[in-house]
Each structure stands twice: as structure tokens, then as C-alpha cells.
Records
---
Amino acid sequence: MAERNAEDFTKSPGWLDWYPNPSKPRFAVPAGAVDAHCHVFGPGAEFPYAAERKYTPCDASKRQLYALRDRLGFARNVVVQATCHGADNRAMVDALVHSGGRARGVATVRRSITDKELESLHAAGVRGVRFNFLKRLVDFTPRDELMEIAGRIAPLGWHVVVYFEAADLAELWDFFTALPTTVVVDHMGRPDVKEPVDGPQFQRFVSLMREHPNVWSKVSCPERLSLSGPPALDGERNAYRDVVPFGRHLVETFPDRVLWGTDWPHPNLKGHMPDDGLLVDFIPHIAVNAEAQRRLLVDNPMRLYWPEET
Ligand code: 0GY
């Protein structure tokens, strides 16, 4: 592959931009709802993308993110550092400090980070670090380095967010279960939704959560996991239905350890870009009553990201 020019912010070939005019969801999220997984990208002219990035995205600014928040009816965001910014957290931190206290963040840090830098991330609203194990997104980081970082952020009350492919869980199990913090898994551990919910692959993930009460899951990204895809353009809003049994199983089995997020601006999607309004209408299919919805969208994220208010 050709060496990427670090200064060239031309979008990666085939890059899909975020959906410009999301529909108004039919599902009204409860008051105080948190979008607990979303990103900002640049803008590249202000916050350059990292030299080591594996993709160059479209710009997706804090202003655009907060407009989406308001359009969908959410009160708060958790802004997760995207790999295109490497361990340069400035765009994410800038989004937090301009949120009026309505956003908290998850950073990417290296072993070289100083205590002072960690404290300043904390002051900006960072409450976790993300360890990414997807080879298409990041270069390998030795486990001892990650464990060292986890040991340093634990006293701050932060947690670790992990992103991995379902096929890699067996190999990562011992590392995950040795982490000294709450561990939040992105996108249900990326199950293959062709497999049954009670099949070995997803049940391995369910066992991880059952045996380890410090493990939480984001029941997010149906648009990334779905094979059936969005609905036909017939006005029906019951999208991504093949993902429903997986999300619903986790929401019902672990009601106080699930989070939900849009994943806006949806990096690296192939095929289609979701209407974020439709994604919100997915929620009542996996959290089927008001209590489950309140826990998923308000109580759980508030406990993790704004514990001082709960
Ligand atoms: C997601 C998923 C992806 C990308 C990233 O930080 C990232 O680049 O998280 C992906 O490509 O699956 O959660 O945004």
C-alpha cells in the first residue's frame, strides 16, 4: 500500500459522509438521555488527523454533533476518541469543553502520558480510555503497556472501553478479566448476527458479562452489524431487525450494565449511511418498556460518566 501523506486530508476512497438531514425519531427518548458513543472528526484544518491513522474521514465537528443531539432529543454525549486522531485528544477535548458540561469523553493515551496530562484530561471531562484491538484500525500495542495504562487511570475512577472482533474474544479474555476497572465493550463485541443468540460465539460474550460484573456493553451499532440492513423505502421504521435479538438479550439480562450510542458520524461504513433518526427508533425494539429505556439511556450512562450527579 502507498505511504499515506500525513498532510493530505483527502477522504479515504469510498468514504461515506454522515447523513445530512436525519428524520425526527418517532421514539421520544426519556428526559436526560445520553448518547454514550459518538465521535468528532477534526475539522482537519483545525485538528489535523494523526499521521498513523488508517483512514481519513470527512470532517464532523462538535457543532454538528451537538445539532444532532438536539435534533434526536438527547441531553448529553459521550465523545469517544476516534482512531483517525491517534492519541492526540485535542478535537475530543475541545468538544467536551465547549459542551456546557453536557459531554464527557473517552481518550486514547500512550504509556508516555504524564500524571499532569491525565489530570488535565480529567478536568476537561474525560472518564475513560479506549483500547482498540481491530487490526484494520490500529497498530498493535503490547498488552503490558495497556495494563500499565489501566493501572494508572484506575485511581482516577476512569474505566476502560474495549473494541474487538467476536472471533478474538477467546484470546483476549484473560487480558480483559485482569483489568482493574469497569470494562465497557463496544458494539456488543461485534457478534456475527448470522449466528444464533444462543450459539457459542455470542454466548461466550454473555458469559464474560455474567462471570464478570465489572463488564458492561454498548448495545450499539445495529447498522454496522446488520446483514438485513435498513428498511425498504416504504415508510417502515423497523430497521436492522436481525440485530434486535442480540441487543434485547443483553438489555434484558444485564439491565444495569448496558449503554446506547449513535456512533455518529459512523466511520468506515460500507454500503449505506444510516439515518440517525431510524437508529433512535431501533431503541424500543431492544429496550421494550419505559424502565428498561430509562436505565439504558439515563441511569446507566449517568452512573458511569456523571456519578457526582446520581
Ligand atoms: C466505531 C467503529 C469504528 C471506528 C472507530 O475509532 C475509530 O476509528 O471506532 C469502526 O471502523 O468499526 O465505534 O466508531
---
Amino acid sequence: MIQALQADITTLNVDAIVNAANGTLLGGGGVDGAIHQAAGPGLLEECRTLGGCETGDARLTMGYDLPARYVIHAVGPVWEGGRSGEPGLLVSCYRKSMEIALGRHFMSIAFPAISTGVYGYPVEPAARIAVEVVRDTLKASGKPMDVTFCCHSEGDLSIYKAVLNS
Ligand code: ADP
């Protein structure tokens, strides 16, 4: 099942929430800051051991004080106008995150709108990529998983709903 809802992703009780991380994996603003704040210092400690992550890739950690059992840290591209490989890198973020979740047999995962905050990726094309990659990887896997697109704003939610219905 795939759904979109408006929520603070740190409150969701799922197997894994995805973090829109930066390459250092050492925390930042936006959803990254909120996740580290809610998870507590154990998360940063584990992230320090990972040695960073390339753009378009993802890493798994425990969820610590979060209701979510795990965090998948995906590093999205910074939007530079769309001709610097941003779509392919965003596709890769969603694909790698889904591969980790499927490999661990997670039954539920929640994604924020990766790259669409400080990184400036326009929301609608980003939502199209998110929905398409999730649909394709779920179908190819043949496994059941509840996927939530967790929107921070009402405007983002209406864009995700429109994309899901198209
Ligand atoms: P990026 O650097 O990848 O753009 P941001 O954290 O700046 O990451 O923004 C990514 C998305 O996460 C934006 O849509 C932002 O509104 C949203 N966001 C920020 N805080 C939260 C939160 N607590 N829960 C869910 N989404 C959030």
C-alpha cells in the first residue's frame, strides 16, 4: 500500500523512516535536524562510524529514541537547474532506500520529500520520481510493504496526492 499524509516524520511508528541527509551524515537542518533531535545522541554516534555517504546513495542505522526501528539516511542531490544529473541521483536515492528496506524485509517505510527543502529540488518532479521508483521497485520485488510519503506541508501533500492519482 502506498499513501501520502501530512505529518512530522519523527512521530511515525514504522520499521524505517528515511532521512534527507547530507554527505557527511553528521546532521543538518530541516528533516535531518528533526530526526537527530528526536532520535537522541546515539544516532549521531552511529553515523560518525559510517564515514559519510555519496550523493544518490543511502545508509542504514538504528532508530534509537524514535518510534521507528531504523533510519535510512539517503543523500539527495542539490538542485542546480536539472541538467547536472539531479533526476538520476534522486532516482538512485529512492532505489537504494527501497533496496535496503526490501533486503531487511521491512514491512513499512516512510519517506520525506528528499531534496525539496534546502536542496531546492522542485516538489512536483521530485514527487513523480518518488512515486515511480517506489511503485516500480515494489512491483519488481513482489513483496508487501506499506510506503508512506510523509509531507511537511499541506501544499506538498496535495502535490503528492495528485501524483499518486495520476
Ligand atoms: P533537503 O536538504 O534534502 O532539501 P530538507 O530537510 O531541507 O532536506 O527538506 C526535505 C523535506 O523535508 C522538505 O519538504 C521539508 O519541508 C521536509 N521536512 C522538514 N522537517 C520535516 C519533518 N519533521 N517531517 C517531515 N518532513 C519534514
